[in-house]
Design a protein that fits this description.
The complex is a heterodimer of chains A (310) and B (505). Chain A contains eight helices and seven strands, in the order H-H-H-E-E-E-E-E-H-E-E-H-H-H-H. By secondary structure, chain A is mainly alpha-helical. Chain B is α+β, with helices and mostly antiparallel strands and 505 residues long. Chain B is 54% helix and 9% strand. In chain B, the strands form three sheets. Chain B has a four-stranded antiparallel sheet. In chain B, strands 1-2 form a two-stranded antiparallel ribbon. Classes of the chains: A mainly alpha (310), B alpha+beta (505). At the A-B interface, helix 1, helix 2 and strand 6 of A face helix 2, helix 3, helix 9, helix 10 and helix 11 of B.
Chain lengths: 310, 505
């Protein structure tokens, strides 16, 4: 084959361009840390990368949801524990009141403390998390428990003693999505905590206090309330253990989410990420090729027969 | 019969002149070593037969004949028209794939995957903000965040769509400009045909004009499918699918005419078709840059009614519209199930209502999609609750997030024949990626092919400076030698004329 100058130069230029293109690609991979920067560079990888990015973004969101749910449940647990302590104290005070050796003055003092506990109970029932009432069901903006007149308690504007009115309220549970299609009810309706009907926690304490205040010998009248208090305590304990169970479940879910996140992140770096060492070695090789092609080109293009003629 | 006394001078003179001419040709070749399209030239030489009667066989003093020196037969060029044909055949595909790849790469740029500003990314943010709302349905800030992210989704779609429209217009301009280019080349070739024909009528070859013409035909071959014939007597004809573009000194120009009916419903206005000037016949464009522009501008994807089946701009417009339609319809359908929080801008001010559209249900294209006026007026019209939130007997049920959870779940719903929102768009990107990388590969293949053929042409026709230098020395020496011959003959004549017959003088 006959070789002409324009061929030499054309080939040299073309090869140099393709060398530089290769270096540019590698440089881009180094600088961005990604194997591809436009879909056409790796159509399959691109599709997988989009899927993984979506999964990662939702895993992040679920993790946030789980953390918020945990905070909410922690707040619920604190409030429930407070209510549990109140019941314990009421129990102790009631047992003291049953004791026949109490003077009228003593009973009065016990009744006063019970009244304070009663208020404390309503406060606990109106606990908030981040400005939202946690025991109000779907009502998160107004205090759910209200005492319109002494001895009467309203839950979400309805009489807590009226079981029929409470039927709908006791089913209102706020759900959080903590996984694909997985929701977890994180709120506890306050009516379930206090108990529905005339024997709700507030009314029970109220009646004990009234008995102490008004009866000369309240021991017989107070006896049945001990059982009622035990019943309430059992209910609170079961609510606490349910909240604890949910918290545990969330811990597990969170661990799994973290695990998934790690796996997807690994997958993403496999699909998108470059192998740094490999790229550096490739780049070094490309550089060597480029430099030697320049050196060879310089030798081929420069001399001609003219240099050797007299 | 004897040779004439000065016969040798004549032979030497021819040698001098011929070598001088050959040196001129060498100079011309060297001067044009870098001229695009230049074909190296060579003197075709021929030895002259003996003049009749001189040294003839009859009565010759010596046997055999001495020729009459050298003669220039032709100043020809060294070119292989088969390689030209091969080169032009491949060059048209190079033109087509280059333009198509450029267009598709631009579309890839528009969709900006992978990045944090792509549709998939903003869609993810939108759904994540709905998740946040499901945890704080009463919060005005979070509601505003949802609205803001929804606007981001609509703006991303607007941006994609208007960029596609812009690109379609640019491709259309590309077609118009390229047609002017074709017409310009056709006219130049027509003029050259005339000149070459006139020049060659005298028997010479119009080498340099032919180079110019070949270069123009090469350029034309990257633009459109052109067939080149040389008919008798140096007449050249260029055909486009059987229709003559240039027939010797006749030229048929093309013109771009604005379409009366759009090929695709999404097309921008004033797109042109390519017609033969002054006729109702469309130019049949099957390859070349023009075809590339047409593919990108008109490609609607696979279809049965004879439209361009490349996945070009209209295809991606159609896909964006399909996405928008489904997204708006499905999202609204679920959103209408929910109830808003009473506010002054509510459809029924002061009371909780349902059947509120989140996106404007009459704007179902990517160009138009927008959030509804209700949502624009108040974020409290986002229907988070699955029940009225203002039951008089109850406090407001602002904490009810059931409808938001249903909306969040839409993200994973696989709609029949559509897939989920994100998987639909993912498959669009994947199609684009495959198509674009295919174009890139085809372009590279054609590049390799044409550069190989071009190399072969240069191997045959290109100027080799070393070769020309060698020739230069050859002709220089021959010239010197011919001059020496004259001296030698001169000396012999000197002997004959000045030193012969001097005895006794």
């Amino acid at each position: 084959m006959r070789i002409t100058n324009s061929m030499l130069i054309g080939n040299f230029m073309r090869n140099m361009t393709s060398n530089m293109k290769r270096m540019d690609t590698l440089q881009m991979q180094m600088a961005t840390g990604r194997k591809f920067n436009r879909p056409s560079q790796d159509p399959v990888g691109m599709t997988r990368s989009m899927q993984i990015r979506k999964d990662l973004s939702r895993l992040e969101q679920y993790t946030k949801n789980v953390e918020d749910a945990q905070a909410w449940l922690n707040q619920t647990e604190t409030a429930l524990n407070e209510i549990k302590d109140i019941i314990h104290r009421v129990n102790v005070l009631t047992l003291q009141g049953i004791n026949g050796s109490n003077s009228q003055d003593d009973r009065q003092k016990i009744a006063d403390e019970l009244d304070q506990l009663k208020e404390q109970l309503v406060q606990a029932g109106n606990s908030t998390y981040a400005g939202r009432y946690i025991f109000g069901g779907y009502n998160t903006t107004q205090a759910p428990f209200e005492i319109p007149e002494p001895g009467k308690i309203l839950y979400n504007n309805k009489d807590l003693a009226d079981a029929a009115l409470m039927a709908g309220e006791s089913a209102e549970v706020i759900d959080y999505e903590v996984g694909k299609g997985v929701t977890l009810g994180i709120s506890t309706p306050g009516c379930n905590v206090f108990g529905i009907g005339p024997d709700n926690l507030y009314s029970v304490i109220d009646e004990i206090s009234n008995n102490l205040r008004n009866n000369v010998d309240p021991s017989d009248d107070l006896q049945p309330y001990i059982t009622k208090l035990q019943d309430k305590l059992g209910r609170i304990l079961s609510e606490i253990s349910e909240v604890g169970g949910k918290t545990n479940r969330l811990d597990l879910i969170k661990k799994r989410l973290e695990n998934d996140y790690y796996n997807y992140e690994t997958l993403r770096s496999q699909v998108e990420g470059v192998d740094q060492e490999q790229v550096i070695i490739d780049f070094k090789m490309a550089e060597v090729v480029y430099r030697s092609s320049l050196a060879v080109g310089a030798r081929i293009i420069q001399p001609s027969l003219m240099d050797f003629l007299r | 019969m004897m040779r004439s006394t000065f016969y040798g001078f004549e032979i030497a003179r021819k040698g001098l002149f011929t070598n001088q001419l050959a040196l001129d040709v060498t100079a011309h070749n060297i001067a044009n070593a870098n001229t695009p399209g230049y074909t190296r030239q060579r003197l075709a030489l021929k030895s002259l037969p003996p003049a009749a009667g001189i040294n003839g066989v009859f009565g010759a003093a010596v046997k055999g004949q001495v020729g009459a020196g050298v003669e220039v037969q032709e100043l020809g060029q060294i070119r292989d028209s088969f390689l030209d044909m091969q080169f032009r055949r491949e060059n048209k595909y190079l033109g087509e794939w280059t333009v198509q790849y450029d267009g598709l790469a631009y579309i890839e740029g528009i969709f900006s995957e992978p990045s944090d500003s792509s549709l998939n990314a903003v869609l993810g943010e939108f759904f994540n903000s709905l998740q946040e709302l499901s945890k704080n349905p009463e919060s005005e800030e979070v509601r505003s965040l949802v609205r803001q992210n929804a606007i981001k989704v609509t703006e991303t779609l607007h941006h994609y769509y208007s960029q596609l429209e812009q690109l379609q217009l640019e491709q259309n301009q590309g077609i118009e400009i390229t047609i002017n280019e074709v017409n310009d080349y056709a006219r130049q070739i027509r003029d050259l045909n005339e000149q070459i024909f006139r020049f060659e009528a005298g028997g010479d070859r119009a080498n340099d004009l032919r180079d110019q013409r070949n270069l123009l035909v090469d350029k034309l071959s990257s633009i459109i499918n052109v067939d080149v014939y040389e008919t008798g007597g140096g007449r050249l004809r260029l055909d486009i699918n059987g229709m003559p573009l240039v027939d010797h000194t006749q030229v048929n120009l093309m013109e771009a005419r604005i379409r009366t009916t759009a090929a695709n419903s999404s097309d921008v206005g004033n797109l042109v078709d390519v017609y033969w000037a002054g006729s109702s016949v469309k130019v049949s464009i099957t390859s070349g840059k023009l075809k590339g522009y047409l593919n990108v501008r008109d490609g609607i994807g696979p279809n049965t009614d004879g439209r361009n089946s490349t996945m070009g701009i209209p295809y991606y417009m159609k896909k964006l519209n399909e996405f928008t339609d489904k997204f708006v319809t499905e999202f609204n359908a679920q959103h209408r199930q929910g109830w808003n929080i009473p506010n002054d801008s509510s459809p029924n001010p002061g009371t909780s209502v349902n059947n509120i559209d989140f996106f404007d249900p009459s704007k179902l294209t990517a160009r138009e999609i927008t959030i509804s006026d209700d949502i624009k007026n108040s974020v409290y019209n986002i229907a988070a609750s699955s029940q009225p939130v203002d039951d008089i007997t109850d406090p407001d049920k602002k904490g009810d997030n059931n409808n938001i959870i249903r909306l969040v779940e839409l993200r994973d719903v696989e709609f029949n024949g559509f897939g989920s929102f994100e998987s639909f768009f993912r498959s669009v990107i994947s199609e684009l990626a495959v198509e674009s990388s295919h174009s890139a590969r085809m372009m590279e293949t054609q590049e390799a092919m044409t550069s190989h053929l071009d190399n072969q042409r240069k191997s045959v026709s290109g100027v080799s400076l070393d070769e020309e230098m060698t020739n230069m020395i050859r002709f220089q020496q021959s010239y010197a030698a011919a001059a020496r011959i004259i001296t030698a003959i001169d000396e012999t004549l000197d002997i004959l004329i000045n030193r012969t017959g001097l005895v006794g003088r």
